[in-house]
Amino acid sequence: MKSSLDGLHTRVVEPWIGALKDEDRSVRSLAVGSLGWIGDPRAVEPLIAALKDADSRVREKVVEALGNIGDPRAIEPLRAALDGSGKDLRSTITTALAKAGDPRIIASSMAALKDDNLAVRQRAAHLLGAAKDPQAVEPLITALKDDNPGMCRRVAAALGAIGDPRAVEPLIAVLNRGTSSDRYRVVQALGNIKDARAVEPLIAVLKDGSMEKPVRHIVPSALGKLGDPRALEPLVAMSQDKNEQVYTRNRALWALATMDDPRVEQVAIAALKDPEPRIRRTASYVLEEVGSPQAIEPLVAALMDPDSLVRLAAVRALIKTRDSRAVEPLKAALKGLTVKDHQEWSHSIRRSKVGYRRDPRNENFEEWQKEETEK
Length: 375
Description:
The chain is mainly alpha-helical. Among the domains are: 11-93, Leucine-rich Repeat Variant (Alpha Horseshoe); 261-375, Leucine-rich Repeat Variant, CATH 1.25.10. The chain has helices at 2-19, 25-38, 44-49, 56-69, 75-82, 87-99, 103-112, 118-131, 137-143, 149-162, 168-174, 180-193, 199-207, 213-226, 232-240, 246-255, 262-271, 277-290, 296-302, 308-321, 327-335, 339-351, 363-374. α12 (180-193) runs parallel beside α14 and α13 (199-207) runs antiparallel to α14. It starts with a helix and ends with a helix. The model is unreliable at 1-8 and 352-375 (pLDDT under 50).
C-alpha cells in the first residue's frame, strides 16, 4: 500500500505545482496544502515563488507548506517574508523557519528557554520541537525542571518530537510528579522516542487504577509504538476488561497490532464476538494488519455483523488477505449493500487517512476478483 501511495504522490506533484498559478484562489490554496502534505522537494522552488501570491490566506498556507517540507532552501525567502508581516503570520513564519532548520531560530530559542517570561519560554520549547535539532535536547531536559506545569508539558512534547533517547530517563521521572497534562505529554513523548527503557514504567501507569483516566487512555498507544513483547499481556488484559471504558479497551486492542506474536490473532478473533461494535470493528482492523489466513472464517462471519461499519472493516481485512475463500462471500456482501450502508461506508472512508485507496468498492477488489476468475 505504501509503495502505491508513494507512486501516486510522485505523479500528482507536477499537476499540483501547475495549479499554483490557477486564477482561482481556492484552487491555489488546495494545491499549496497538497504539496505541503506530500512533502516532495520538487515543490520547494515553486512554493517559494508563491510566497508572493496576491492572496494573504494563500501566502500563509505557503509558509506552512514550506515548513512541513523543511527544506533549507526556504530559510532565506522565509526570513525575507518576515518584513512587513503581521503578528500571526510572523509566528507561522518563525515556526516554518524552525522546521527548515534555521540555525538562528534554534540558537535564539535555546537561549529563550531561560527567559523570565513564561510565554517566551513556552514558545521557545515549541520552536525547538518543530526544529527537531538534537543540540536542543540537553537545554530542553534542563527545562523539564521548570516549576510551571504549562512549561513542563510543552518541553515534553518538544523532546518527543526530537525523539532523542537521552530524554528517556528525565521524562520517566516526570511520570511520578507534575500534573495530569504533564504526564499525558510525557507518555506521548516516550511512545515517540521508542526506547525500551520506557516499557516497564508505562506498564506501571497502565496498571495504576489511581492514575488519571486521560493518562491511562494514551498509554496503550505509546506501548503499541514501542512494540515490546513485555506489553502484550497487560494490553490483552486491558482490551478484554469489561470494566474499562470502551475507548481504552479499543486503544489497547489496536496497540496489539504492532506485536509480532501469534496470540494477537487469537485475541482479535475472539474480539469479533464482543458485544461492543467499536471493539468488533477494531478487531477486524487488527486482523487486517496481521493478515493471517487463520482469520478468514471469522472475518467471513463478520460480514453478517449487525453493525455496518464492522462489516466494512471485515471487507477491508478480507480483501487484504487476497485469499480465494473470501471471494464469493465478498461478492455477496458487496452486492447486498443498502443505501444506508453506502452512506456510512462513504463517510467512514472519507475520514480514513488513506482515503479512496482503502475503499473495498474500488478497482483493488475488481482486479483481485478478475485474477481469481482467471485461475
